[in-house]
Each structure stands twice: as C-alpha cells, then as structure tokens.
Design a protein that fits this description.
By secondary structure, the protein is α/β, with parallel strands linked by helices. The chain contains 13 helices and 12 strands. The protein has one domain: Metal-dependent hydrolases (TIM Barrel, Alpha-Beta Barrel). Strand 11, helix 11 and strand 12 form a beta-alpha-beta unit. Helix 4 packs parallel to helix 5.
Length: 385
Amino acid sequence: MSMQNQTFPYAGAIDADGHILEPPDTWEKYIDPQFRDRALRIRPNQDGLEVVEVGGAPARYVRPGGLAISGAMGKKAEDLEPHPDKTYVGQAPFGSMFPHERLERMDQEGLEKAIIYPSLGLLWEAENLDDLELQAAYARAYNRWVEDFCRDSNGRLIPIAHISMGDPQAAAREIERAVKNGAKGAFFVPFTPTNKSHAHPDYDPFWAKAQELDVPVGIHPSGEPPAKRVHQRFRDMQKWAVWHFNVHGAQGPLQAFTALFQYGLFERFPRVKVVVLESGAGWAGYLLNRMDAVYDSPLGESVPLKEKPSYYFHRQCWISGDPDEKAFGNVVDFVGADKFFWASDFPHFDHPGNYMDELKELVEPMSAATRQKVIGDNVAQVYGI
C-alpha cells in the first residue's frame, strides 16, 4: 500500500473530499426492489474486460476495462491500460473499499476525519438522463449504503448524500431522509437531467429543505454526457484528449456555481450553505472579482441580489482546494482563511498520492490560526462535525 513519508504533524486534519470505491453489488443490495433488475452492475464483456451496466444497458461513456483505474492514484500511464487481469476490485488500493482499512490508513497518515464521496456514483448520471425515478432510486441506494459504511467509525467517516436533481420533491424528501439517517450534507453533479440550473425556482423545495436541515450542499465534478461537457467544444478532441478535459474539469462546477448567483438563490435562502468541491482554489480571486465587476455594470440588473455576489460568497459559500496547488496559500490570504478546506481526492488517479506531504508543505508557512482553519476547523464548523 502506498503511504506518505511520515504522519502529518498537525492535529485536527479533516479530508473534505475523500472517495471510496463502492463494492460492485452496492446497488443490487441497496436499491428499492422494483428497480433491482436495472441496478448498476459490473460484468465482463466478450474480451474479458469489465463493463458497467446502468439501467440494464452497457455504459456509453466508461470504456471497457476502464473501471480498474478508479483507485489508481500514484500509478503510471502504462498501469492504466485496460486488461482482463486488471479489475475494479483487484486494483482497489488499501483503504479505498472497507471502512476498517480506511480508518487504519487515516491513522497512519495523521487524519482525524474524512468526508466520504463516491466513485461509481460519479459515473451513472451521465448515462441515464431520462428516467428520473430510476435516477432517484440510484441516489437513494448509494445513500443507504454510505450511511452503513460510515456508521461504526465513531464519527470519523462522514457520509454525504448524493442528490439527483431530477424531481425536486424527491430531492427534498431524500436529503431529509438521508440527514435523519446520519448524512452530514448533500452533493449534486454539475448538470441536471432537466437542463435547468440547480437554482431554478423549480428546485426551491430542495433548497428550502437543505436550509431547514442546516446542512451544506456541495457541487462535485462527475462524468458528464457530451452534450453537457462545457469543456469539449472541439469535436476532434472528444475521444482522446483526457488531459485537456481534466485540466478544464472545474468548468462544469463553476458554471453551476455562478448560476446560483444569477438566480438570486442566496437572497431567497439566506442560510443555505454551498461548497465547491474538487475544482481547485485558484479561481476564487478571479471569479469573485469578475462577478462583482459585472454586477456593477448594467448587466447586473439581471441579477436578483441586493448586495454584490462576493457578499453572499463570504456569507454562505466555501471552497475545497487541492494541497498541491502552489497558489493555494496566496488565494487563502486574498479571499480569507475562513473560506477554505483541503481534500485528498484519494484514491482517484488525477491527483498525486503524496497528498499529506503536499498538505504539510502548503500549511507550514501559514499562521497557526489560519493553518488550523484550513486543515480542519473550517470544515468541522460548516458540516457540524
């Protein structure tokens, strides 16, 4: 198992966005019985490569054999090529699939707590956009499972509910059910099956319930169907330019985020809490300045907010940044120490495996007060953990 060089030297560290690899039978076990025949499954194809099935059909946007790289943090490019011997479960690193292993890994790293997000759960919404009942059932199944996964961890593994933004009433019911069963917040992906912004008034029942429950709502990157990939404007690159797509992977979350301001969400729901996840931190200075500048122009008349966007950001929004971001500390100084978390993204391959070493390097130059806020105090306060 790949571990850091030494235990993290500062107490109270909380991973704001750690992932798990859900067992392949999660949806078959946890989905409502009437949907079980269409549960998410993993099966071998004629070449012996694993294929994801969503709603009873092979996934269109996950290549055969591609699931094995879900836990490939720290691996080389040649290790990522599909092969029948490389399976999703077989390639899962220590701490990625079982709660007792995750806690042991956290002990060795010096992590106090980890907020848990899915892996397979970030794939299926791109595959099935039409059946809103099935989408809601998939989300419920994952949420039931992650509640059980985290239940016996003495509060160290924190479950977050996946909300599908199809039927607003179903979304409101599910966030309430999940929070009553241990979830400390919710997240949604950057697009919606309805093609409406997450802040469209149709979704007010969901936001009203999130505000009533006083839990944060995260925007997390995910697999996106081509029609919704804001960063795939060049058709010649769509099948192979994975580096390009990943560099610009934050564009979906940030467009979803700015749409919340355009709709005046934070005026209508002054106690809603929103977290932007796995999209870096360096955008904060630019985007806050740009939103305010355009708000101050005649274009700002289209925004139903009484104050500048940055006012609501400081009141109701937070950012989870990456510890390997060289500008992270400068952005914290510019925007404010209260607004930032850090996250490992373990065990996903698009971030380096030495995240605790990178975190140490990031926070060492900070003042003691700022350091404690960034490594754990902020996220503990926002999530009530």
